Amino acid sequence: MENHKSKFLFLKIPGHEIRTLTARIAPGFPEGILGPSKGKPKEMLMRSARLLLAVFLMLPVLALAQDRPIIIKAGTMLDGRGGILTNTNIVVEGSRISRIAPGTQEVTYDLGDLTVMPGWIDTHVHIGFYFDQDGKNRDMNLGDTPAQSMLYAMGNAYRTLMAGFTTVQSVGDPTNRDLRDWIDQGIVPGPRVLSSLGGIGPAAMGGRTGDPAEIRRIVRQLAAEGADLIKIYASTSIREGGTKSMTDEQIQAACGEAKAQGLRSVVHAYGTESLRAVILAGCTTIEHGNRYSDEIIELMADHGTYLDPHIGLIYYNYFENKDRFFGEGNYTEEGFAAMEKAIPIGIETFKRTLANPKVKIVFGTDAVAGAHGRNYEEFIYRVRDGGQQPMDAIISATSLAAESLNLQDKIGTLAPGMEADIIAVAGNPLEDITAVRRVVFVMKGGIVYKNIAPGT
Fold first, then answer.
1. Would you say residue 27 has pLDDT above 50?
2. CA pair distance 245, 351, nearest whole angstrom
3. Is the pLDDT of residue 64 over 50?
4. How confident is the model at residue 158 (pLDDT cuts 50, 70, 90)?
5. Alpha-carbon distance 365 to 340, whole Å?
6. What is the rounded distance in angstroms from the CA atom of residue 82 to the CA atom of residue 141?
7. Is 60 exceeded by the pLDDT of residue 57?
8. Residue 342, pLDDT score
9. Is 289:297 a contact under the CB 8 Å cutoff?
10. Are 225 and 197 in contact (CB under 8 A)?
11. For 203, left (φ over 0), alpha (ψ -120 to 50), or beta?
12. Are 28 and 45 in contact (CB under 8 A)?
């Protein structure tokens, strides 16, 4: 039997040891390869380079598939839909869960003193945003060579996976395609990535725009290029007031054509006017929101519109790293003041929205440079400051998030037939939400990537 102190094989990289579990379990990359996201930028780039080398050196291990079921003992299991089981076994065959039931058979991983749940889903990240070698904010379109940018993005993906997030939705960046595909192919470790490969809206927001006919053409082009969703900027940045930036007809064209192409529409929007237009256009999900009337809450409930509010991490990450963002675009004193003002407004709006249980609130962080691998902090802000129940917060990042991505039949729930995306934390987040910071076990698609003893 192997518990969470399982034996590892070691692969030496200068200054690092890459750990894998037994050969029949694909690689378990230790959290220490890249270190914390707040390291010196040059060291972070070198660590990312070492990670890439380690991945390719370990490809032979990836080829050795598991030859028998994996049995995970769960002391407390949250199924992602609100159900709780104790002292049960999760049986994994290949990439999927085959059954969940108490049993006496020998277990592969004894997580009896941990809380086990589905891998978390972050429905809004910018996986390609990072701090460059000079410590300044960058994305995969600016400043560095494509190879450097990809190394940073790989580091972000690795940190996010080690933090317990097995699926993310990366919105607005046309350069995410290769990273998404490499992760899907098992070339590099990371969460499952869904990408918009660009966006619709003002150029200042990084989007492409035009009259309704042109917007429909752009949507069709993005669909043909392999976009998983359509990102739309219906408002300006919160640092510029969050005012409406597209006409009703443009929003209707974007969301209508997305639906016609079989894609979801995810819309950056602030304020009552913008949110009303988005909801009535039949768009799938609203990002941010921040401030809106009770009428909007009722409209979201009636239309089944998903809401992904961001009430904490997005702002405090900017404040903690102000010197790294300041001076670029709207990262000005006025822009930071606007974000300061938005915090209490967003929390008050979040609390009013929670009062209507019919509103589908999903989990997202808008993670940019400095926030990757700390995505779980948004759970704490939502529970501690926003008043959300811990179980509801977890559901928002599991089964409800999966539903918003049209992946409810694949991920977000621990049940037979579902993908074996399984994580465990030390402690019980239903009693102490800060337990989400203590992820000690990560499995994605039946492959173990992290398995460490609590407290190490």
1. no
2. 26
3. no
4. very high
5. 17
6. 41
7. no
8. 97
9. no
10. yes
11. alpha
12. no
Adjacent-strand bridge partners of 439:
425
Q: Look up the CATH superfamily of 120-404.
A: Metal-dependent hydrolases (3.20.20.140)
Whether pLDDT at 60 is above 80: no
Closest by CA to 192, choosing from 440, 412, 377, 439, is 412
3-class DSSP string for the chain? CEECCCCCEEEEECCEEEEECCCCCCCCCCHHHCCCCCCCHHHHHHHHHHHHHHHHHCHHHHCCCCCCCEEEEEEEEECCCCCEEEEEEEEEECCEEEEEECCCCCCCEEEEEEEEEECEEEEEECCCCEECCCCCEECCCCCCCHHHHHHHHHHHHHHHHHCCEEEEEECCCCCCHHHHHHHHCCCCCCCEEEECCCCECCHHHCCECCCHHHHHHHHHHHHHCCCCEEEEECECCHHHCCCECCCHHHHHHHHHHHHHCCCEEEEEEEHHHHHHHHHHCCCCEEEEECCCCHHHHHHHHHHCCEEECCCCHHHHHHHHCHHHHCCCCCCCHHHHHHHHHHHHHHHHHHHHHHCCCCCEECCCCCECCCCCCCCCHHHHHHHHHCCCCHHHHHHHCCHHHHHHCCCCCCCCCCCCCCECCEEEECCCCCCCHHHHHCEEEEEECCEEEEECCCCC
Contacting residues for 67 by C-beta, under 8 A, at least 6 apart: 24
Cβ(101)–Cβ(114) below 8 Å:
no
**Angstrom distance (rounded) from CA 204 to CA 328:** 13
CA distance 287 to 269: 6
- pLDDT tens sequence across 199-220: 999 887 778 999 999 999 999 9
Radius of gyration of the chain (CA): 21
